[in-house]
Design brief:
Layout lengths: L2 E6 L3 H13 L3 E7 L3 H9 L5 E2 L3 H6 L5 E4 L6 H10 L4 E3 L7 H14 L4 E3 L7 H12 L5 E9 L10 H20 L3 E7 L15 E7 L4 E7 L7 E8 L2 E4 L8 E3 L2 E3 L6 H4 L1 H16 L8 H20 L3 E2 L30
Parallel strand pairs: 1-2, 1-4, 2-3, 4-5, 5-6, 7-10
Antiparallel strand pairs: 7-11, 8-9, 8-15, 9-10, 11-12, 13-14
Helix pairs in contact: 1-9, 4-5, 5-10, 6-7, 7-10
The structure holds 1,4-dihydronicotinamide adenine dinucleotide and (2R,3S,4s,5R,6S)-2,3,4,5,6-pentahydroxycyclohexanone.
Length: 355
């Protein structure tokens, strides 16, 4: 069976996901598209065999030939499309953030719970990255002892061109670290503090760039996250966990080492597309397989909500300079099933959330 996918929002990541659904992974076909920029939608459809262009996201969701929805429009538009997909009973993959506020995410959680089955997967693709998966397995083995600390860095060569703000450094960029440490440690985040170091003179002077977030996990592990969106030299993602008997870290290795002029050097990825290319492939391949089997797995609406709640408190901490505590609602039963949130989801070894 081929999963017939409709895509809402065909900008940078929308087009990248269309490419992978069409040319990289198996079992899916893009049959419909829409974008508020109608010309962009027409041009994206031009490269696809027989894909329909719809005037609105709702028309696309209502299309009887669309089995599942991919939402890759701007964050503030996600809630409307995810809720409409749930109402139509169609599986929906929504890029991060699930929605900009915890309240909006909770509306999605409640709609899904009322429907009685998981339909939503959130695009926290780092959970599918080989490096982060190896770190999680390394920690689970137990030989390193209890984790105590983690050091993360999230560096973009330049801030995205669309009016990027200091708040977006947390809600758009560091939201990935917020999700990945919840997943790595299988713990919620209990509090956040934001430090404001000296600003770079490169890039927008209004940006608090870099900034440092201190996240306190519920069990006392402390995580520092450097977010630096105009680092200039490339896209550099780091993560090291310090445990009682050793450390485990993402390797900074690319695939090759260049030796020249008395130096060994490794290329730095240009952007997220390059750094996480395999993670996005695995993420969407698993989504297609699981959804085609009538099932659900991967980061859930609950994970989208928990991340949004931490983001909200960190934004408060950015303003106040104070530590902010995070209070989550009770986790509904739907998101307690095995594999539903924090397991290593892998077709060969993972569990699936049941309907
Ligand atoms: P973009 O600006 O390149 O593309 C967004 C597209 O959505 C544009 O073509 C825009 O016209 C369209 N759009 C906006 N509102 C719409 C609406 N109401 N209905 C239909 N189309 C609409 O942005 P980009 O970088 O592709 O980001 C899109 C989403 O993906 C964001 O939520 C972003 O945070 C997320 N993202 C996730 C990444 C990841 O690593 N997982 C990487 C990059 C983006
Ligand atoms: C972008 O939206 C992403 O999600 C990328 O993964 C992240 O590294 C970048 O900072 C965001 O702007």
């Amino acid at each position: 069976m081929t999963l017939r996918v409709g895509v809402i929002g065909v900008g940078a990541i929308g087009q990248d996901h269309i490419r992978r659904l069409t040319h990289v992974i198996s079992g899916a076909r893009v049959v419909a598209l829409t974008d508020v920029d109608a010309q962009r939608a027409q041009s994206a459809a031009g490269s696809l065999d027989g894909a329909r262009v719809h005037a609105t996201g709702q028309d696309l969701i209502d299309d009887g030939d669309v089995d599942a929805i991919l939402v890759t429009s701007w964050g503030p538009t996600h809630e409307e499309y995810v809720l409409a997909s749930i109402a139509a009973g169609k599986p929906v993959f929504c890029e991060k953030p699930l929605a900009p506020t915890p309240d909006a995410c909770l509306r999605i959680v409640k709609a899904e719970v009322a429907r009685g089955r998981r339909l939503v997967q959130v695009g926290f693709m780092r959970r599918y990255d080989a490096g982060y998966r190896a770190m999680k397995k390394g920690l689970a083995r137990g030989t390193l002892g209890a984790p105590l600390l983690a050091h993360c860095a999230h560096r973009n060569p330049t801030a995205p061109p669309y009016g990027f703000t200091s708040e977006m450094m947390i809600s758009d960029s560091a939201v990935h670290e917020i999700d990945i440490v919840r997943w790595l440690f299988d713990q919620e985040i209990a509090a956040g503090t934001v430090l404001k170091p000296r600003r770079t003179t490169l890039g927008d002077p209004n940006l608090q760039d870099p900034l440092i977030m201190i996240l306190e996990m519920a069990d006392g592990v402390v995580v520092d996250v450097e977010v630096f969106v105009n680092c200039g030299y490339g896209y550099d993602i780091r993560c090291e966990v310090v445990a009682e008997s050793g450390t485990v870290a993402l390797s900074d290795g690319g695939e090759i080492v260049i030796t020249s002029n008395g130096l060994h050097s490794r290329p730095v990825p240009a952007d997220w597309r390059e750094r996480f290319v395999r993670a996005y492939d695995v993420e969407l391949q698993e989504w297609v397989e699981v959804v085609s089997a009538g099932d659900a797995s991967g980061p859930s609406s609950w994970d989208g909500y928990a991340a949004a709640a931490v983001v909200e408190r960190c934004l408060e901490a950015l303003q106040s300079g104070q530590r902010s505590t995070v209070q989550l609602e009770d986790r509904p039963e739907l998101y307690r099933t095995p594999g539903g949130t924090n397991a290593v989801e892998q077709s060969t070894e993972g569990h699936r959330a049941s309907r």
